[in-house]
């Protein structure tokens, strides 16, 4: 009988059936890939009984308040724990998670601080979500070693300052979301190392000072948003370090259109991409004017030397040497009051660039596309697959105000404006199939994008039809038993 029992077990495993199915109470589990969905059940802690080899774990929209090392398995590829009450993450919680590709800790408003070891060793991480976590400071080496990270979501926190070289290891980062914080200055090495960055969103901060060399490593940046800050001036030399720039937003800043603005004015005359209006607030005779539309005669008391150095620099942008530049001016010692933050954020005059959504176009709740390969260009140059060129943008007049509708790529949806359904959804069907997404880039892995996907419903493990199962057992059981008895 014992051998017959072993034969039956072998037969069931051979047919792809399991004798038992371990799944936490109130959760839904299925295979292909192995997934545990425990969302929206008011769990106060990570539920017990999560299968040890689960690849995808969905715990969003609960009330979990602590994450400890024993809670998850290193086989996890996708882990969503957004919209909980997490206040503490044990530093070793994710140690050994060498295959983790997406980690969403967003919308945990009381997290507030992270240990520098929290993400250490996550070598395959593609997307990290830390939006709306109440973070006011980041450890200097918090992102150390995350060389495959492509999407980093830090928007809507309380960050006031970014240390030099905090992103220096993020060589493949293409999207950096820093809007909705309290940043008031950008230094020379704030963004050092981000050579693959395509989109940098810094709007809705308190910026009043940007170092002339702040963007010196951003050679592939196509989109820069600086609107709704406290900038009164910005050096044209600073923007000349962005040779791939196509979309620039500078509106809703208190620009002073005097002699200090000549280098920016001169750069705007040469820029062939899409820009917003640059509304002047001072001096009085320029208030209400658009700096882009002003003429040289509107600067009667300026010698022109203010823009001479920048013009010479633009002619040889590729040869800029940081060692030869004079020391940058020091930032103000006092932090400014930001007039734009006294109430709700005003609606921007044109659409924002959106982070990637799912393959089916649903909202990603700050999701990324961890499967997108790093930018590559033909002929030895990198091609950034995340950007979409404006139609006819390069062939228009120098100071045309182009619409930014082209930027609202259907592959993107805004992470911070919500989708009305509480965030992300699970992409696969119970049989593990994933719809194909329309994208020109070749995915790095076979995993479909974990972001912006369909909500799991009453899913269960695949079930075999009763008559078919009985027929298989009737035919194969005698053969298996005979083989074992021999």
Automatic annotation (TrEMBL):
Biased composition annotated in UniProt, kind: Basic residues: 384-394
Pfam families: LRR_8 (PF13855)
Region (Disordered): 297-462
Basic and acidic residues: compositionally biased ranges: 407-428
GO cellular component: cell projection; membrane raft; perikaryon; plasma membrane; side of membrane
Tree of life domain: Eukaryota
Keyword terms, alphabetized: Cell membrane, Cell projection, Glycoprotein, Leucine-rich repeat, Lipoprotein, Membrane, Receptor, Repeat, Signal
Protein name (record): Reticulon-4 receptor-like 1b
Gene that specifies this protein: rtn4rl1b
């Amino acid at each position: 009988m014992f051998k017959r029992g072993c034969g039956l077990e072998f037969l069931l495993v051979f047919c792809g059936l399991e004798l038992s199915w371990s799944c936490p109470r109130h959760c839904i589990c299925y295979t292909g890939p192995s997934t545990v969905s425990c969302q929206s059940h008011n769990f106060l802690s990570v539920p017990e009984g999560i299968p040890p080899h689960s690849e995808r774990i969905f715990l969003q929209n609960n009330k979990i308040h602590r994450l400890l090392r024993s809670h998850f398995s290193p086989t996890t590829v996708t882990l969503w724990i957004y919209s909980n009450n997490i206040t503490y993450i044990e530093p070793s919680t994710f140690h050994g998670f060498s295959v983790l590709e997406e980690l969403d800790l967003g919308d945990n408003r009381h997290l507030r601080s992270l240990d520098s070891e929290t993400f250490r060793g996550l070598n395959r991480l593609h997307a990290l979500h830390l939006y709306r976590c109440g973070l006011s400071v980041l450890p200097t080496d918090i992102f150390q070693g995350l060389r495959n990270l492509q999407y980093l979501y830090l928007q809507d926190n309380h960050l006031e300052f970014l240390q030099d070289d905090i992103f220096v290891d993020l060589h493949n980062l293409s999207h950096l979301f820093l809007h909705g914080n309290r940043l008031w200055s950008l230094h020379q090495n704030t963004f050092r190392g981000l050579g693959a960055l395509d989109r940098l969103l810094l709007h809705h901060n308190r910026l009043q000072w940007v170092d002339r060399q702040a963007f010196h490593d951003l050679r592939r940046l196509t989109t820069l948003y600086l609107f709704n800050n406290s900038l009164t001036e910005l050096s044209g030399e600073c923007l000349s370090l962005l040779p791939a720039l196509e979309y620039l937003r500078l509106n809703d800043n208190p620009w002073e259109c005097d002699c200090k603005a000549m280098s920016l004015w001169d750069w705007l005359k040469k820029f062939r991409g899409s820009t917003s209006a640059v509304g002047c607030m001072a001096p009085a005779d320029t208030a209400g004017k658009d700096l882009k539309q002003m003429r040289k005669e509107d600067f009667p008391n300026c010698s022109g030397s203010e823009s001479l150095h920048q013009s010479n620099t633009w002619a040889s942008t590729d040869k800029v040497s940081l060692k030869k530049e004079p020391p940058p001016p020091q930032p103000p010692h006092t932090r400014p009051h930001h007039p734009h933050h006294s109430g709700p954020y005003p609606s921007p005059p044109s659409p924002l660039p959106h982070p990637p959504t799912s393959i089916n176009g649903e909202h990603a709740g700050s999701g990324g596309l961890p499967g997108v390969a790093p930018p590559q260009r033909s002929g030895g140059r990198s091609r950034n697959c995340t950007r979409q060129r404006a139609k006819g943008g390069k062939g228009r007049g120098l100071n045309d105000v182009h619409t930014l509708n082209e930027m609202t790529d259907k592959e993107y949806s805004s992470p911070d404006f919500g989708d009305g359904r509480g965030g992300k959804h699970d992409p696969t069907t119970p049989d593990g199939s994933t719809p194909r997404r329309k994208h020109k880039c070749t995915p790095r892995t076979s995993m479909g994008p974990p972001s912006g996907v369909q909500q799991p419903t009453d899913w269960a493990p695949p079930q075999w039809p009763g008559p078919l199962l009985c027929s298989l057992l009737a035919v194969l059981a005698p053969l298996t038993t005979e083989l074992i008895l021999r």
